[in-house]
Amino acid sequence: MLLFSWLPVVGDPLTLVAGLLRTPLTLFLVFVTLGKAARYAAVLWLTP
After folding, report:
1. Could you state, in order of their start, the residue ranges of all structural domains in the chain?
2. What is the pLDDT of residue 8?
3. Rounded distance, CA 22 to CA 36, Å?
4. Where are the extended beta strands (E) located within the chain?
5. Cα-based angle 12, 27, 34 (whole degrees, multiple of 5)
6. Which of 2, 7, 16, 33 could form a disulfide with 11 if both were Cys (CB 3.0 to 4.6 A apart)?
7. 8: helix, strand or coil
8. From residue 13, how far is each of 20, 28, 34 by CA, in Å?
């Protein structure tokens, strides 16, 4: 679910819930970074 942390409305609550559930920091960082990197890669790819 943390791969969807880039979404505008649902992303912040997802990260909050992950923190409350005590998700391991390394796992959290990997998934959030992958999700946000995919978002910016898509933006760069779609920008002329």
Report:
1. 2-46
2. 87
3. 21
4. none
5. 65
6. 7
7. coil
8. 10, 14, 18
